């Protein structure tokens, strides 16, 4: 998807401002050369004061800016920095990473008790030539109804911890997901197709986005 831009991109210093192993693995699958520099940004935005898209985009920008400020005086300055944030929304409520097992249990119970989907929002911010470009990708995930013993068994695996919405679509959670509408990679944490299109548009200036 990044061809024929890949050779040009691989001559640049590209930074992924994330410690997520899933995001790193997804980006590596494109053969793009990049460095991982985890952000120390304090994620403290008030969800009540932002739309879902605005929340993830502003958080992604915060992560990006934190890493940029730490690297801007390097001899070899970054050419591109990518910041990413993912959250899950259901029934008008925002779900981030569970605080503990009880929070994880409550989250999964909420998400699996109706035929309605939860929506995964991933905000992506890209800094290139001192300009920040941003976008949000949304994917709807439908889940099979779980009873309390099944929810507790899932929580005890440890998979929900550290994941927005308390589940990992690439792991055990795939056994109770019935349908996905949209980019599956977005649920994992990085919408590769949209990111590729945006990088082409930003760097080449001649590729239209899908939005």
From TrEMBL:
InterPro entries: ITPase-like_fam, Maf-like
The UniProt record lists the keyword Hydrolase: yes
Keywords: Hydrolase
Keyword hit for Hydrolase: yes
Cofactor(s), names only, from the UniProt record: a divalent metal cation
Family matches, as CDD domains: Maf
Domain of life (superkingdom): Eukaryota
Molecular function as annotated in GO: nucleoside triphosphate diphosphatase activity
Record-linked PANTHER family: BIFUNCTIONAL DTTP/UTP PYROPHOSPHATASE/METHYLTRANSFERASE PROTEIN-RELATED (PTHR43213), BIFUNCTIONAL DTTP_UTP PYROPHOSPHATASE_METHYLTRANSFERASE PROTEIN-RELATED (PTHR43213:SF5)
Protein name: Maf-like protein
Naturally occurring in which organism (per UniProt): Callosobruchus maculatus (Southern cowpea weevil)
């Amino acid at each position: 998807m990044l061809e024929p831009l890949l050779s040009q991109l691989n001559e640049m210093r590209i930074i992924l401002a994330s410690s997520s192993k899933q995001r790193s693995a997804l980006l590596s699958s494109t053969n793009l050369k990049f460095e991982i520099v985890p952000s120390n940004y304090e994620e403290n935005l008030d969800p009540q004061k932002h739309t879902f898209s605005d929340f993830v985009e502003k958080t992604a920008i915060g992560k990006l800016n934190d890493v940029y400020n730490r690297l801007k005086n390097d001899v070899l300055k970054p050419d591109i920095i990518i910041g990413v944030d993912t959250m899950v929304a259901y029934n008008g409520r925002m779900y981030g990473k569970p605080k503990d097992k009880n929070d994880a249990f409550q989250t999964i119970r909420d998400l699996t008790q109706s035929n309605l989907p939860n929506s995964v929002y991933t905000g992506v911010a890209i800094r290139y030539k001192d300009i920040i470009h941003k976008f949000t990708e949304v994917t709807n995930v439908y889940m099979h109804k779980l009873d309390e013993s099944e929810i507790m068994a899932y929580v005890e695996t440890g998979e929900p911890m550290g994941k927005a919405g308390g589940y990992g679509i690439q792991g055990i959670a795939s056994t109770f997901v019935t349908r996905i509408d949209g980019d599956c990679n977005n649920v994992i944490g990085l919408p590769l197709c949209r990111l590729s299109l945006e990088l082409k548009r930003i760097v080449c200036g001649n590729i239209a986005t899908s939005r």
